[in-house]
Structure formats: C-alpha cells, structure tokens
Amino acid sequence: MKRIGILLIIIGVVCLGVFGYQIIGQEQSQQQSLIQAEERIKQGMDKQGETELDNASSQDTAQAVESFDTEQDEAFATLEIPKLEKTLPIVEGTDPDSLEKGVGHLSNSVFPGQEEQILLSGHRDTVFRDFGELEIGDTFVVQMPYGEYTYEIRETEIVPEDDTSVIREMGEEVLVVTTCYPFHFVGSAPDRFVAYAYPVSEN
C-alpha cells in the first residue's frame, strides 16, 4: 500500500511538471506572437504615415483596408480587452497550432473595416482566461496595421460545440469572439460562449 501511495505521488508530480511545461511553452509562444503582431502593426502604421505625407485620399485608405491580407499562422494584429487589462496577439487561422500562439482569426471571415463578420476564437484557459468577467457594454479594441477599431459587446449566447450557425454573413460589421464553455470545465468543454460586439461610432 505504501508503494502505491508513493507511486501516485510520483505520477502527480510528473503530471504537474508536464502541465507547467506546457503552460510556460504556450506563454512563450504567445509572447513571441505579440512581438510579431506589434512589429506588423508598426510597419503598417509607418507605411500609412508615409502615404499621408504624400496627401493620399480617403479612397486610398479604403483600398488599403480592402486589400489587406495575411498568411496562415502569422500574427498580424492585437486584441485589447480593457476590462481584463489584456493585450493579445491575433493569429491567422483557428487550427490547434494557431490557437497555441494567440487568438485565432477564422480565415473565412473578414478583417476590421470590411463590413462583415470578423470571427475570433481562443482557449478559455490561456488567452481568454477570466473571459467570464466580461459583460454587455464592455469593449474589444483591435489594432490593425491600417488602424484601430473599437467594438462594444451587445449580445452573448451559449451554443453547442458543433453549432456552426454562428459562422454566417451578418450584413454588417460584427466582431464575434468565441471560446469554450463552461469556463472552468475540466476536460473538453461541451459548449461555446459567443460574444457579439459592434463598432463604436467615433464622435
């Protein structure tokens, strides 16, 4: 019996070590993605500044928004969550590799300023830790290489894991942010928490 107890302790210590190693690895990967995203934003802003010096028209700016593109797994923008005091990297793609690096952008959805559904997804136990604290009226700020976009949460819903109706044309610009639910569920969560945030008009 004593040997069994010692064995269980050893297994527990090993499991904690593996879990800790994974957490540290994820945090390092996300930090690298944040550096990459901020560099991409800086390059875009520098280019935009040069364009403004050349007296570019608003039509040129709109063209830059419409023509924006990025590559799979590339960190290209940041998502700020003021309520949680977080700034997270946005990475192209929602596959497991992309979600290890930051908040994933669904490649079939558009980018801010393109007037349709922008879908972002992230893990509840990494980038979206404490996501349950968000409420109607809280905001997201997306910093793109071509500008900053603020969105206010107006609706939330909980849907089954396999419900794909969330991904759809909405006829207007909506930032849709999803994560697993329940937030503190142990194992693979059965549902998804979905927040719908709409552009905040500039005064």
UniProtKB/TrEMBL annotation:
The keyword Membrane does not apply. Keywords: Hydrolase. Residues 54-64 have a biased composition (Polar residues). InterPro entries: Sortase, Sortase_D, Sortase_D_1, Sortase_dom-sf. It comes from the Bacteria. Residues 45-68 are annotated as: Disordered. This is Class D sortase. It comes from Oceanobacillus locisalsi.
